[in-house]
User: Fold SAM-dependent chlorinase/fluorinase from Thiocapsa marina 5811.
Amino acid sequence: MTRPIQPIVLVTDFGEGIYVGQMRARLGSLLPGAPVVDLVHDLPAFRVDLAAYLLPALIRDMPGGAIYVCVVDPGVGGPRGGLLARARDCWFIAPDNGLLAPLVRCTEGASVQRIGWYPAALSASFHGRDWFAPAAARLSAGKDLQATPLDPSEMVGSDWPSERAAVVYVDRFGNLMTGLHAANHCSTQLLRVGNRALPHARTFCEVMPGEAFWYENAFGLVEIAVNQGRADRLLALSPGDAVGPFTRPN
Amino acid sequence: MTRPIQPIVLVTDFGEGIYVGQMRARLGSLLPGAPVVDLVHDLPAFRVDLAAYLLPALIRDMPGGAIYVCVVDPGVGGPRGGLLARARDCWFIAPDNGLLAPLVRCTEGASVQRIGWYPAALSASFHGRDWFAPAAARLSAGKDLQATPLDPSEMVGSDWPSERAAVVYVDRFGNLMTGLHAANHCSTQLLRVGNRALPHARTFCEVMPGEAFWYENAFGLVEIAVNQGRADRLLALSPGDAVGPFTRPN
Amino acid sequence: MTRPIQPIVLVTDFGEGIYVGQMRARLGSLLPGAPVVDLVHDLPAFRVDLAAYLLPALIRDMPGGAIYVCVVDPGVGGPRGGLLARARDCWFIAPDNGLLAPLVRCTEGASVQRIGWYPAALSASFHGRDWFAPAAARLSAGKDLQATPLDPSEMVGSDWPSERAAVVYVDRFGNLMTGLHAANHCSTQLLRVGNRALPHARTFCEVMPGEAFWYENAFGLVEIAVNQGRADRLLALSPGDAVGPFTRPN
Assistant:
């Protein structure tokens, strides 16, 4: 066949256990040979409101042409629908629970549809494997998803703000990613976190070991870090905790 | 070659560290291009008695035609043998320590053989890389494993019960999978756990946030969960802890 | 094309989160279809001094012909350079911070070069994705890395000892790998750890459950383990903690 192979990229809060393996096996049987990329599986569990703000940053520098399957889905089994969005030369399949809302909002020309196709067999609690992964396989194979256009203002989360002044992800080193776009904030400003005011630095080496600072991370987000230390422990912050505002130095 | 490519599926308690990478690299050198699926690597460490009851559920909805390499092997380096089982259109390679016993027992038409082939070089402590993965590669390539039929009643674990009334796996969200088949139990019954009696629900959305319940999970097992919470913490249960029995409501 | 496909092998302290996914996606777009092996991503965070002693052991039994991308890089964004080493029929790309020093030192015929090529766009904090992975893709495609020979004695870490009498890695089971080569030590000796003197055993089954011992692990390193238990907890040791010396029994 001459269709170019599109990578399937997985974005979940499933952890590295059995759920991802089941999704990969299902994809492997429906789309033999298609590359599947595990982009992230340790999104904060259940926290659609945080994951939604990390997603646009994560894909900023990713290759085009991919099909993303995004599953943070605490309402699985309930009445929420499924979405198919088009943004930045990629497709995104996800539950209609806000997960794609900031991405669609911040991407010029993005569009969104409601998925009308359902699989013949659907478990009550694992739509990632049973619905969204097969939908991605159908999309990749050029099959119909019975999708109908949706006005973005009707998506769940369409009223969410364009930035989120909170920790949205803690990496393995204890660095704290926020839902703030670095491009919107000035490096002469301090970032208030509790009763501290953190200075900006360009990179870890510019501050003393043990010192906390904020910087623009490799995804374009405001991130709080500590040179050779753990920001999450030093500042006692976890996913969902508020940060900011930015202030001018005295 | 015209032989269809069979996925190699890995099932271990190795965690995501160096052992899986070594197995994958070995497979990649012996079977270039064959797809390797990481089904699960966070089985409870050393607990063959629990993993054995999760395995049949994990593969229930997996694609056929795969070769499973299953390694939970606390007795590595000792005299235990290696098995090759055939069940549900798939092959299973594993130590003879009970890991395949419930699968063979619960699968009609399953058969089992003892592997007689050994590699030229075999470390004392890493048979997953040095013996079982190369055996899978040989099987995939149609080479001989010097296997001899074994009466299933001679497998280690052949006398284990068909269900296990205990927690066999805790997922990332704190949900508690048990070794009980949901199809064998009635949804009008309560599941006793300590001094609680948990009601049945079809899915998370059917109970109040914070409430514990039991349900049939996407693998056909009885699972204990809490809507928007962690069942492992609320009920203080870990892998190996007993659950049950089922009781009738008053 | 007729060039044989070389696997790209990833060795990092990134954990299983978003950084590895970004590297894999970048590699997938630059080298479609090339196999990428996750060898290890849970090296002790920031600890180049430990990872450097694990690396030669990890690759000892790996297939030849691979390109390793090794990233433990606490100085990212600073002035440290990038290295391309050749050892045991494989290529190694890494920061010049000591990570490759013991490997080059212990491998006969190893050579090392300084990478002169830089990508057009380079983030300050993610050289694994932006510099080292693309360099591996260029190398695989036969493109120039503008590499200039380097005298191994000029590498950072060239003065480090050939062994490291410390815990360099703790696996999921609590086993403690050290930076000591088992081939250099005699199995009649005891290994002192704090006020204990651990005996040698060939494998776990040779000691009583709960008993600590040292043995040659499947990578050729001295490893401290406990039969059916966790050595890290029993001995209260973590990565970086000193072990040894070896002593003769009385």
In short: The first strand of chain B starts at residue 8 and ends at 12. The two ends of chain B are 65 Å apart (CA to CA). The mean pLDDT of chain B is 94. Helices of chain B lie at 18-30, 48-59, 101-106, 127-140, 231-235.
